[in-house]
């Protein structure tokens, strides 16, 4: 590999313009691909197969309208007074304007919704009053029916007596000898009157029977009505006065429903909707679009990130001595990020890509791009000052430090790609994109850096360094001989650094995982203000609604359906941490109910987490056979649980990988244990610092933490992956010099000191640059990015300065020769990995050393011809 990189560096030095042109073409291709095929980045994270994801999929099938993407906008009066009629009309007009935006399906007017809720309550009250009046009527009906029947019985008795009297008269007339026909004719009129009276009596009885049947039906309806009124009251009680207009009338929540689901709503549509609200002006009313409505994609480079790059540039100038040389690593990093990030984002139209993914790629690309170029430039400058010929120096720097860069980059890439082992798609994609950007950074370092160094020529050295070049060997020879550190100092250093890191890591034992919500946004943003307004006027839980779906039999009657709905709503409402339960309705098939649950606290509150577990542990009420949950709060819990589950596995893989790599590189069993132990300490301390600042709120004013919350759920996994690769970089550049000195016969403790002195300056500079770049993201606008930037910056700080530059040399000094212990059988089977290209240096040492020394030490302007000699 070293020989290959030597030749590659030499070719790049001979044809610098061709190399530069090739990278310009790569940038153009990547930019064209992004502009042609780039899609929409999503501002949410999701893990397929979790209970929340499964329930969300069911919602999209069974309740397609309810499963659409939504976002709230909060309206509140500036002086805290109730909305005036004119303000209400203006708010409705603004919402109507938002309804007309392409991509918006509908808007929910809070005042119309509040009126509907009031109408429902009034209908319930009116129904109860009507039912009470009907009950009073039903109470008197039996007496009236009984009295009517008594009257009919009396009339029947009178008719029977009259009939008997008439029949007696007929018999008397027949007995007197009157012909029967004459008798019938004589009494026909009286008989007709009696018959008519009997018919009238029967009609009266029929009417009474009908009225009694109607009464019985009325009793049944009354009883059914009582049940329905009772069920309605039970459902109303479960809502606990739910409203979208505050009790004092000074705030209201409007809702925008998009045509597409949340993940599919484009950034343009969201911006158009948010723009409608931010451009609107209502006298005396604040309009606050919420976080879920905007879901803005974070800026890749903001002012804070630029400040970080400026600090990195200052460090480069101090170390490299000239502005033009210091600009080379920055230029390389920008080229690598441009190609890597743009090429990766070109796939965002076919792969669901989180908005954090390219930002992480940019973060890593800038940091490693600067550092990797710095390693090569530093080696080249050192060789130039020793009198090595220009092109040979460039090729040697590429074959030695470039070889180390390839190895270091490989460890970072492997650690990032290993994120795919977690089985979590968005995390694996972040690792893949980050790894790709690092690969590009390595390629830029070993091709573009030699080309740019060739164009720079001896201007890679300052004029003072060029003038001092002839005295370099003499100055090196006159340096004070190195001595090993004292044993007492080594003991104190080792114990002190381990103790400091262990103490800083203590908060990690109380770490809670979560996802940022509106409370994590900057206080001056409408996202935070909307969150605060909803919490103030409606309760913190209004920012974390939970959707519950309940499976039921499809053949339930209307009353049984209402009964089951009320029973399930009451069961949920009875839980301590539930503020409102709002029944939404049933699906078209009639086999599923939907509820909206408003908890007391927000999504990241520990009580809300407990509530979700409690809801999932319920034995469903009534005819409900299964109860499932969805929503931001449940999604946060599912994602955090899934990540917490895979974190030990990933940490084990990374630590095991570090042991294998270190054994291979340093041919020792002890050094890898020290390196891996130091990595665990630095990661633990970095996570502890993250918990203390972002979860506990320590130093919150400094780090823009105004509302402490659980740690970003995927941050620990990302930190392990990234910091592992960087830790191995620093271990390599610190320990390789120790190994080389020991292998050449230097006493073990003196070899530790020699290697440390040889590598400390470049490691310190590289670490400061890393901290500057990562630290710039601490003040990013996006709440996802800030803790990532801090975690990586503090992790690099701990690992480079406490672990690699203090603890590792101290422990290796105490161990002495034992630090390089390796069983003979293992030594025989391990391949010889020449990471620093030492054999290449030995083979070419002196071959061209001293050639054109006059050129390298003169301050005469260098022409293109002389640069390419």
Topology summary:
Elements: H1 2-14, H2 16-37, H3 51-62, E1 70-77, H4 85-99, E2 104-108, H5 110-175, H6 180-239, E3 251-258, H7 267-279, E4 285-289, H8 291-294, H9 303-320, H10 323-345, H11 356-385, H12 390-417, H13 425-456, H14 463-468, H15 472-478, H16 487-504, E5 513-514, H17 526-538, E6 546-551, H18 558-573, E7 578-586, E8 592-599, H19 606-616, E9 626-630, H20 632-666, H21 670-695, E10 711-712, H22 715-743, H23 748-776, H24 785-815, H25 824-829, H26 838-844, H27 853-857, H28 864-867
Parallel strand pairs: 5-10
Antiparallel strand pairs: 1-3, 1-4, 2-3, 6-8, 6-9, 7-8
Helix pairs in contact: 1-12, 1-13, 2-10, 2-13, 4-7, 5-6, 6-18, 9-10, 9-23, 10-11, 10-13, 11-12, 11-13, 11-23, 12-13, 12-22, 16-21, 16-24, 20-21, 20-22, 21-22, 21-24, 22-23, 22-24, 23-24
Characterization of the model:
It is a single chain. Helices cover 67% and strands 7% of the residues. It is α+β, with helices and mostly antiparallel strands. Among the domains are: 205 residues, Multidrug efflux transporter AcrB transmembrane domain (Multidrug efflux transporter AcrB transmembrane fold, Up-down Bundle); 218 residues, Multidrug efflux transporter AcrB transmembrane fold (Up-down Bundle); 108 residues, Alpha-Beta Plaits (2-Layer Sandwich), CATH 3.30.70.100. Strands 2-3-1-4 form a 4-stranded antiparallel sheet, with helices on both faces. It has a 4-stranded antiparallel sheet with strand order 7-8-6-9, sandwiched between helices. A hairpin with a 5-residue loop joins strand 7 and strand 8. This is RND transporter. It is found in: Cell membrane. It comes from Enteractinococcus helveticum.
